[in-house]
Amino acid sequence: MKKRVLIIGNSAKEYALAKKMSETCEVYAVPGNDAMKEFATCQDIRETSSRELLEFALENGIDITIPVSEQSLQTDIVKLFTKHNLQIFAPDVKTLEYINDKFTSKKIMYKLGIPTPKFGIFEKQNAASDYIKGMKPPFVLKTNSPSSAVILTSLQSAKSILDSIFTEQDSAVLAEEYIYGTPFCLYAITDGYNALPIGSSIIYRHSLDGEGGQLTSGMGACSPNYKLSFEDEKYLMNSVIYPTLDYLERNIATYMGILGINGIITSDGKLQILGYENFMQNADCAGILELIDMDLYSLFESCIVGSFSDEISYIDQKDLYATSVALNCVMAKESENVIQSLDNLDENTLVSYTNNVCKNKYLELEAKPGTVMVITALAGTLSASSKKAYEEVKEISFKGMKYRHDIGKYADRC
Length: 414
Description:
Elements: E1 4-9, H1 12-21, E2 26-31, E3 41-42, H2 50-59, E4 64-67, H3 70-73, H4 77-83, H5 93-100, H6 102-112, E5 119-122, H7 125-133, E6 139-142, E7 150-152, H8 155-165, E8 173-177, E9 182-190, E10 195-203, E11 206-208, E12 212-215, E13 220-223, H9 230-251, E14 257-265, E15 271-277, H10 285-291, H11 296-305, H12 308-311, E16 321-329, E17 350-353, E18 357-359, E19 365-367, E20 370-379, H13 382-393, E21 401-402
Parallel strand pairs: 1-2, 1-4, 2-3
Antiparallel strand pairs: 5-8, 6-7, 6-8, 9-10, 9-14, 10-13, 11-12, 13-16, 14-15, 16-20, 16-21, 17-20, 18-19
Helix pairs in contact: 1-10, 5-6, 7-8
């Protein structure tokens, strides 16, 4: 009998995880999205209804629950499920607060001696303004809101941003020097004590080709990160991942699940850490998961039951590259917007849909404003996977479709 897995969330990363696990498991999704219904049983339960989710898991014999959704994790669902002896793969809410809070995570990095761009945290606008006057543009301003980072090139532009930030009650801002270089993400799986890398990526966060425009949550990704060497990966595990896990275990609680770090590789090969991730991201999740050459269920379960350190010493990886391209809908208003020619896609192409996709009365998928889907292609080289991904993107059309055209295209040697 297949193992039963419950995945909580409804965006591209939850879709990619559910799709991958459906190859060997019976998958349930809460709330899921319309596209997930092709391979998973979606339940109309609110992500924040931890009691309802507990009852559903008990009544349906769920073997492992994987809450990816931030809203679900904030309800302390991990503690609730653990109390009732249900297997759940995710970090505790106490540790999550330290990882996801941009201000707290920067303080942890500073305390642990982790290399991170020079920064200041301010709760008063005047103090923030004074600090910025001593910074050399460009620099970055961040709040604790998701995707709130803004790159600024002048003090004049910073003033208006600070004005808008501090109009909110109890506001605070993080001012950080801007570091030039290649972005990286490295992800590790951990039982809280031992940890192993499961993959890396370059995430393209700028909205326009050539790293122009606004910062986004991700317009695409390449995996693995071809500029991140084995020595770099070893350094990041020993000098960032393990010290962070040790700090959390000593001071907060044991962190179990996926722990990611994102940062910059500078032109002289140095690594600067910008922050943490508590799971893979929409832009790179499908590629990272597809390159793992191991059974995900067994991997996750080993962390939950405490056999991870004894049973697993290395995460097998496929000798391939993945390129992912996010397709966005920039229409101002929702209207009839059928996604055309999906049947023309190669069967090996990975498509991860977000909750901005719905089925109409004819059971056709329609695009709504926002990120609609992530197209992921794999090949033996990065340039080949990039070429294949864009060939597949050209097969798709819907009103207001927008995407970057340069994901992975300048990695000709890989």
